Amino acid sequence: MVRQHVNPLSRFHLVPRPLPAPPELFAAADLPLHLDIGCARGRFLLALAQQDPHRNHLGVEIRRPLVEAAEADRQAAGLTNLRFLFCNATISLQDWLGALPAGRLALVTIQFPDPWFKTKHRKRQVLQPPLLAVIAAALAPGRELFLQSDVLGAIEPMVSLVEASGCFERPAGDARPWRSDNPLALPTERETYVLNQGLPVYRVLFRRNEAAPPPPAASSPSPTASP
What CA–CA distance (Å, rounded) separates 49 from 52? Predict the structure, then answer.
């Protein structure tokens, strides 16, 4: 299973894209919302939305062809509690999350994000301080943020960032440093593939605590077309 990396700091992907509000996306916009950041081809969400009709599910992805294919599948299935949107989550989700009604966001998942191994490419990782700040502000206490990856170099910086924010804690009894099981009802395709190879998956579940969210950090990455 080959990853097709996209540089989120290219000029094209640094352009903010206004995203439709929940009433424009879902038939019942007041349902609790699950946001999956980096949903890839979307088959995980397609299955989950059918199994969990009491939530709305939104997948965002930076690779437009995958979003178009996922949306075609959603429409064919007639699912009104699921949508897929093309955007650079780090850039375009900040205003969208900030405008969500209080208490609407129930769960945020970031699963198997593209790994960027070089230190100079850390700024390309999807979970940056400004995005985490708005996620923390949108999640009510007790609501959850779930991270998983098969690459330590991808998940460790995310975990460090979340822990440093002071806004999240792990559920009592969770194994450290990694959970042994997936708290979600279904695995992603990448998760199934990795486990079938006998390789480890690194997982952390966080719950929003009562701490005040940090103010969104200024973010003005320099456009670059470098590989």
Answer: 5
Domain definitions of the chain by residue range: 28-208
pTM of the entire predicted model = 0.86
Please tell me the predicted confidence (pLDDT) of residue 226.
Answer: 39
Which of the 8 DSSP states describes residue 20? -
For the domain made up of 28-208, the CATH class stated in words is alpha beta
Is residue 218 predicted with pLDDT exceeding 60?
A: no
Does residue 183 have a cis peptide bond before it, meaning omega lies within 30 degrees of 0?
no
**Quick one: three-class SS letters along 53-120?**
CCCEEEEEECCHHHHHHHHHHHHHHCCCCEEEEECCHHHHHHHHHHCCCCCCEEEEEEECCCCCCCHH
Q: Which residue has the tokens 């699950």?
A: 34
Q: What are the catalytic residues?
A: 114
Phi, psi (5° rounding) for residue 58?
-125, 120
